[in-house]
Amino acid sequence: MESPLTWTFPGFWQMATVDVPLESLDERALVDACLAGQREAFDLIVERHRRAVYQLCYRFVANHEDASDLAQDVFVRAYRGLRKFRRQSSIGTWLYRIGVNVCINRVSARTLPTEPIAERQFVDPKADSGSDRLLQSERRAKVRAAIAQLPRKQRATLILRVYHEMSHQEIADALGSSVGAVKANFFHALGNLRKLLGPEGL
């Protein structure tokens, strides 16, 4: 059975002669190589980031098949829009931004499924003790159902902050937002979770 982390991209595997092995290039050099016509360079970008992108998508849909489809869509969009990459952030952050947009657009009108998400509790180690107790006390499925009802920006911020342990600055880069907006979205997301989960969630 094919791994959910394995896929192919038609046309990304063409061979080219290069003086320096592509594997030795950093990501900015790989982008340059890809834009110069060495399209197999993008395969290395995929290889380096596919697990992180897949895990991001899985946090949104909690389903391996859907997450694999979403992750592939992220890389297809990235490949097609590579010339728009302005290098103001890392390629990983840029892929996260694409991934968040793809996931939010795809699942915004749906309820997240109740398939367990890994083995982690929904805990933000940097949250205050009240928020920590709130999140620890809830079953994952109930919390995910509440997360699905949050506004798009709040939902994305919460997922990136808690599940991916990204800093406020990293989230701001991924969402194309400001650190202040990220902090506000996270604060309001926790507040809305309290309301959605009710007194039993405190």
Order of helices and strands: HHHHHHHHH
CATH architecture level-2 label of the largest domain: Orthogonal Bundle
Instruction: Give the CATH superfamily of the largest domain.
Output: RNA polymerase sigma factor, region 2, helix turn helix motif
**What count of domains describes the coordinates?**
2
Share in β-strands: under 5%
Radius of gyration computed on alpha carbons: 18 Å
Principal-axes shape call: elongated
- The CATH class of the largest domain: Mainly Alpha
Residue runs with pLDDT of under 50 for 5 or more positions: 1-8, 10-18, 113-125
Polypeptide structure, described:
There is one protein chain. The protein is mainly α and 202 residues long. The protein has 2 domains: 22-107, Orthogonal Bundle (Rna Polymerase Sigma Factor, Chain: A), CATH 1.10.1740.10; 129-201, Arc Repressor Mutant, subunit A. The chain contains 9 helices and no strands. It has helices at residues 27-35, 40-61, 64-80, 91-107, 129-137, 140-147, 152-163, 168-175, 179-197. Helix 2 (40-61) packs across helix 3 (64-80). Residues 1-8, 10-18 and 113-125 have low confidence and may be disordered.
